[in-house]
Amino acid sequence: MSFNLYFVRHGQTIFNHYERMQGWSNAPLTDKGISDGYAAGDRLENIRFDAAYSSDLQRAIQTAEFVLSRNKQSGDLKTPEQLQQFREQFFGFFEGLPSKKSSQLVAEKNGLENMETYNDLMTNLTQDEVMDAMHVADPTGDAEDAQMFWARVDKGMELLRRNTRDGQNILVVSHGTLIRNLVAKYGSHEQAAEKPENGSITIFEVSDEDMKLKVYNDTTTKW
After folding, report:
1. How many CB atoms within 10 Å of residue 123?
2. Pick the catalytic residue: 88, 95, 135, 144?
3. Domain boundaries defined on the chain
4. Running DSSP on this structure, what letter comes out for residue 19?
């Protein structure tokens, strides 16, 4: 059994625009963010989706609705099923803080020299190491570490496998770091070092035991 899994990163939010950490926090879509969703929908308009999901955070739900509103092949499928398992990584104490400041605090707490931005962390450490470092640096201990994150996301993937048949196309609208983490795990660290754009499309071929990365961070192709 295998199926095609189309991940879309939600549209730009206010927190994205001002480069603030945004995990489980809800920030509204900007005008660009709304356009991101419709643009992704236009590029996916000819894909027949057999099911559609989003995280249960508002920015992902809205983006999924924009994508589905432009789809010409999926009939009455216009509303995503919301799954908490596909939420963004939880950043705990760092939620809402400027990304650069948060990254500097994480680097300082973990003794990581010359890492001043989130991109520095994501480039020089593995995705799991970044999550673990953030958990260590969080004075409240609430930020998800790698074990917490994968326990949640793997349950989401198990749900998809149980409810999907061979050859189907599935839409999931989710979040940047979650998508990067999946790309690092099933593609490569080098690919995941590239930040996925808002509204970008990432495609996996999912089997019973594995996932193969087919497309990452595509913002131009009309499928």
Report:
1. 16
2. 88
3. 7-90+144-170+186-222, 94-143
4. T
The answer to the question of whether 20 is labelled as a binding residue is no
Residue tagged 């958990």 (tokens): 135
Under 8 Å between Cβ of 78 and 68? yes
Structure tokens at 84: 């908490």
Is position 43 annotated in a ligand binding site? no
Confirm whether 88 is a catalytic residue: yes
Question: pTM for the full model?
Answer: 0.95
Identify the active-site residue in 10, 135, 144, 175. Answer: 10
Q: Would you call 10 a catalytic residue per the annotation?
A: yes
Helices 176-186 and 127-137: angle between axes, nearest 10 degrees? 130
- CATH fold of the domain at 7-90+144-170+186-222: Rossmann fold (3.40.50)
Cβ distance 42 to 222 under 8 Å? yes
Report the distance separating Cα 94 and Cα 12, nearest Å.
19
pLDDT in tens, 77-124: 999 999 999 999 999 999 999 999 999 999 999 999 889 898 899 889
Annotated binding residue 16: yes
Distance linking the first and last C-alpha atoms of the chain = 23
